[in-house]
Amino acid sequence: MSQISRDEVAHLARLARLALTDEELDSYAGQLDAILGHVSQIQAVDVAGVKPTGNPLKDVNVFRPDTVEPCLTQEEALDQAPKAVDGRFAVPRILGEAE
Question: Is 86 left (phi over 0), alpha (psi -120 to 50) or beta?
Fold first, then answer.
């Protein structure tokens, strides 16, 4: 038995503001019905006694610790810049913006 009808696909398409042809509606109805059938099969699997696994990896935190380290000063950062204005990098104007 079909779990999703062509009319339901058309309704979903309208909600998503998709313009679908009649052929696409028929095609998607069949595809969505097949997907729902596979989901039903998965839901029917007996998992009683199976311990859930949220994450099979044992690593908890793989990030380095946050430590304050020295960095460039503003002058050092701008030292090799082609052009700097008022302590900032100067770049060519884009999109006709006024200076």
Answer: left
